[in-house]
Amino acid sequence: MDTNLIKAKFEKLGARAKIRPLVRNRRQSSTGQVVIDVQQDRQGEFFDIQADNTADVEVLDVQPRDRHLLLMVRQAAERPHQPDIKNKFLCGHDERHWFVAGVPEKASVSSVVTAKEALKPDAVRSRERGKKGNRQKRLRRKTEVFIRQGEWFFIPVPEVRVNEKLILTHEPIRRGSGKPHMCGELYRDGGTTVYVCFQHPNGLTVGEYRKLLKENPKAAKWGWRAMTRDPMVFVRGRITHADHATIRLNGWHRVEMNTENKSRAMASVAFLD
User: Which of 10, 87, 188, 262 has the most CB atoms at less than 10 Å from its CB?
Assistant: First the structure.
């Protein structure tokens, strides 16, 4: 790994990168070769890249005007005659801050442009399919298909009908423990009812919950709350976030998150907005 070359390519974006030996902690995988974070010091934000001595890290593509680059970490296969494992990360600047996102494992991802395309949710890609026009324009934060704020895509759905009594106001949407994006109005439809508590943060289905209580009656005192997993979410009005410009959605828009949560590489990303 040529650390000086990697730092030089980050400098082309106007960014700083610090590369140091991997320090493992409870939050990080015990088998991962690299952890990438966005940290801050007196000089401002910088990319903190921790890598062990077996990591083969390289920059595949640099787009200085766009202030993005594509980073790849190559890991030798665990078994003979299997292909190497390649994790890819899109590093760049979005409005006000630097970010890093794990890219889904797609053989066609070899550039910043194809990484951005891979991060689009399926609902966006299906609507764009067959449309003509400049590919770069489809990567803007606002197109005829969607409006994007950070990792969230908002897709116009003028045909949707909502139950006015179930509309929530000033409601957050968030990824994990990150800062919430606050929505002027929000409506949820469908999904699966799950029971959530500290011991089961991802939730148990009704059947799983009842089975657990039958096997362990004391679990009834674990502070459960009923929630909905994977509902369709629609929003309209002002969408605000501390790190992004406020957007205003006229009419209902379907909410979709980018696909970084589907990537194996995301396990190596420590930074959450």
Answer: 87
Tokens for 59, please give them: 């920059």
Nearest alpha carbon to residue 266 among 61, 32, 46 = 32
User: Minimal CA–CA distance to 192: which of 162, 231, 234, 224?
Assistant: 231
Pairing outcome for strands 44-51 and 17-21: parallel
Does residue 175 carry a pLDDT above 50? yes
- What confidence tier does 45 reach under pLDDT thresholds 50, 70, 90? very high
How many structural domains does the chain have?
2
Token look-up 């509902």 returns 231
Query: Which residue, chain included where needed, has tokens 């980018």?
Result: 258
Strand (E) or helix (H) holding 230: none
Question: Is 218 domain-assigned?
Answer: yes
Domain span at 213: 192-228
Q: Which two tokens stand for residue 211?
A: 């089975």
Q: With respect to residue 170, please indicate whether it lies within any of the assigned structural domains.
A: no
Instruction: Say if residue 196's pLDDT is above 50.
Output: yes
pLDDT of the residue at 265: 72
Q: Cβ(75)–Cβ(84) under 8 Å?
A: yes
19 and 104 fall within a common domain: yes
The radius of gyration of the chain from alpha carbons, rounded to an integer in Å, stands at 21
Q: Give the C-alpha distances (Å, rounded to integers) separating 231 from 192, 249, 256.
A: 7, 20, 11
Handedness of CA 88, 62, 122, 82 (dihedral sign): negative
pTM of the predicted model as reported, rounded to 2 decimal places:
0.81
Residue 223 · residue 198 · CB < 8 Å: yes
